[in-house]
Amino acid sequence: LNIENQILATDLSYSEDLDDKLELLLKMGRYNEALDVSDQQIAMLGGDGFSRPRTIFLRGKTLSLLGRYNEALGFFDSLIRDGSLKGESLEQKALIMEKLGQDYEALDLSNSQLTPSISDTIHTSTAPINLLPDLTITKISMKQKENVIAGTLTIENKGSGDAGKFTITYFLTDTLKYDPIFGNNDIFVLGEDSANGLAVGDQRDSKDTKMFTIPGNVSPGSYAVGVFIDSNNVEEESDEENNVVYDISWVQVG
């Protein structure tokens, strides 16, 4: 702590020392003071500022913490193009895009997993940002009338990433245990539906009642109606264990 106070109290003249002072001010939440130090640093370096990646990175981080996102993006983009501190810069850019409410899946976030080179002097986290959807059924209602089953359902994306197009499979089962091999003795497919995608936090309600005829090969007995979302396993999700839901208003066959 004494060393930190000494650094903050000293009128530093070397660019490396100013980097240390700037980084310390950011850690302490003194962002306006950090901006003053950054201004001093940029003025000292003049046209050679972009030859010091650490200085440019800290400048961008300072502007970002002050809410000056568009200015900050310019500094991070320059580092990404140059390949200096690329992982950390991509991570900071992704955080800014999230705050701006923009779709940043197009960013090459896989590059944020790159290990910093020996010359990199900023040791920030480079953990990848992995945003995945989580599709789940929140409401289901299936009714039988003779050999026809009709009903509605609501699907919600409770994950942190948007889902693309996925398939919904309806089936009958007498076990209430999901079996991935449709068409065996206790799983009978009724039909399929498709969804064009589902954004984070959105839900998809059935626009009309889905109707299916009970297949002729279903043996007499009592069955539950099951619904399997993303049945083709196209979407990688944060939770793959909640994609099957049953309506246990038992269907009687035969």
Task: Could you tell me the CATH topology label of the largest domain.
Answer: Immunoglobulin-like
> How many domains make up the 3D coordinates?
2
Estimate the helix proportion, in percent: 25-40%
Q: Characterize the largest beta sheet: strand count, sense, and whether it forms a barrel.
A: 4 strands, antiparallel
SSE string, helix = H, strand = E? HHHHHHEEEEEEEE
CATH domain class of the largest domain? Mainly Beta
Name the CATH homologous superfamily of the largest domain. Immunoglobulins
The mean pLDDT is: 75
The termini sit apart by 81 Å
- Total count of helical runs of at least 4 residues: 6
Q: What is the gyration radius calculated from CA atoms?
A: 28 Å
Global geometry: rod-shaped
CATH architecture of the largest domain: Sandwich
Organism: Methanospirillum stamsii
InterPro entries: CARDB (IPR011635), Ig-like_fold (IPR013783), TPR-like_helical_dom_sf (IPR011990)
Domain CARDB: 133-245
Protein name: CARDB domain-containing protein
Write the layout of secondary structure elements.
Elements lengths: L1 H8 L5 H13 L3 H15 L7 H13 L3 H14 L3 H14 L35 E11 L2 E10 L8 E8 L13 E9 L7 E3 L4 E4 L7 E9 L14 E10 L1
Antiparallel strand pairs: 1-2, 2-5, 2-6, 3-4, 3-7, 7-8
Helix pairs in contact: 2-3, 2-4, 3-4, 4-5, 5-6
